[in-house]
Amino acid sequence: MTQRKKRVVVGLSGGVDSSVTAYLLKEQGYEVIGMFMKNWHDESVTISNECPWVEDSTDAMLVAQKLGIPFQAIDLSEDYKTRIVEYMFAEYKAGRTPNPDILCNREIKFDIFLKAAMKLKADFVATGHYCQKDELIVDGKPMFRLLAGADANKDQSYFLCQLNQEQLSKALFPIGHLQKSEVRVIAKEQELITAEKKDSQGLCFIGKVKLPDFLQQQLKPKKGNILSVPADAPIFANHGIPAGIEMEDLDKEQLEEICWPLSYNKDMGEKVGEHNGAHYFTIGQRKGLNVGGTGKPLFIIATDTSENIIYTGLGEDHPGLLRYGLHVKNEDIHWLRPDKTLKVGESAKYLARIRYRQPLSQATLLMREDGLYVLFDDAQKGIASGQFVAWYEGEESIGSGVIF
Predict the structure, then answer these.
(1) How many domains are there within the chain?
(2) How confident is residue 292, by pLDDT bands cut at 50, 70 and 90?
(3) How confident is the model over 194-207, as pLDDT tens digits?
(4) Could you say which DSSP state residue 85 is in?
């Protein structure tokens, strides 16, 4: 009796990475189905003047035809709107900086899309992410590991830092062991229409979009002041790690001083310009302020959306831009490796990053009753509330959390 081929549904985005993913899986003997996710067609919020998803959908269909695999499109726009876009607007309105790509992977690709694939009796879903997966046995049970992609320049493990074991068990990443250049060569050899196509810079599976333009659809422009806070302002006095104290011995008050965002007020700085809405800006941002004559560049060190004020600091070594720690509330802590979960009072040393493509930094994780404190050996630039911190053991993604 012939054994049934394992069935894989590939998220075909109309780009080169997912195209090669589908090709490789077919070569490996899987039964492959291509599926395009339509994530947006809300005319009340314009994405751009172009209609990129139509072009992407056509390219995905042509790749499926070329490979001789079934193809279908699935409309996930309602879920995308409620789970991603509305969340994004709410976070920016509150002066926080969400990461839609991480949310899209957790909420759409490896949840709604995964469930749709399971209805097609799929064994796995596959995406064109540059990351890898393997399996080990822990306490007699299989445990899946999410590993960095072989192409250090394209490693996308950060974007998958919110996946759980169930989601990982069903996921395949066929191009994770390849360099981007090798993926392009394969696409060219197979004469896939996407071989020379540029990488998408837009929101996850939506396409070309400029974020400020997108936000202005719902968060209306509102004039406010840009203030420059001097580097020697008293607020920065206790913001570093005290000398001679082990990180594990820091008390609650010290941890909060190091890891919680600073609270500024309008008496702390001098007006240097005006902006069109504090909710369009994020901590660490330099471009878009349109303030000249300051000598060194101005960086945003805080935004206050209720008072509509942007606080800035002069130069990239300004103390308001640099922090040694961050806090993750209990409900926002996620362990990709549940067997490594820290209990209250425990600590561990890991490598961590607070944004995509940022080099990993040495960090100490301290678990306390009110959540997780992440303390870095070196100061980090532009830690923003709402973003994700991800921690690693070597190449392996261990856990992540939303920055308070």
Answers:
(1) 2
(2) confident
(3) 999 988 765 554 55
(4) I
Residue range 12-33, pLDDT digits in tens? 999 999 999 999 999 999 999 9
Closest CA to 229 of 289, 271, 278: 271
Residues labelled as active-site residues: 104, 204
Residue-level pLDDT at 145: 98
Rounded CA gap, 137 and 90, in Å? 41
Q: Please, which residues bridge with residue 353 across strands?
A: 390
The model's pTM: 0.94
Residues 312 and 387: their CA atoms lie apart, in Å, by 19
Q: Classify the C-alpha dihedral 141-165-117-152 as positive or negative.
A: negative
The DSSP symbol for 170 reads: T
With H, G, I as helix, E, B as strand and everything else as coil, classify residue 117. helix
**Alpha-carbon torsion angle 173, 114, 144, 139, nearest 10:** -160
The reply to whether 71 and 188 lie within a common domain is yes
State the Cα–Cα distance between residues 303 and 358, nearest whole angstrom.
Answer: 23
Reported as a single tens digit per residue, the pLDDT across 77-91 is: 999 989 998 999 899
Instruction: Examine the domain organization and report whether 273 and 201 are in the same domain.
Output: no
Name residue, tokens 């899946």. 144
> Which of these, 323, 400, 396, lies nearest to 135 by C-alpha position?
396
Find residue 368's DSSP bridge partners: 371
Task: Please tell me the predicted confidence (pLDDT) of residue 286.
Answer: 93
Percentage of the chain surpassing pLDDT 70? Answer: 93
Which of 301, 306, 324, 305 has its CA nearest to residue 229?
Answer: 301
Identify whether residues 178 and 246 lie together within a single domain: no
322 and 263 in one domain? yes
Residue type, 12: L
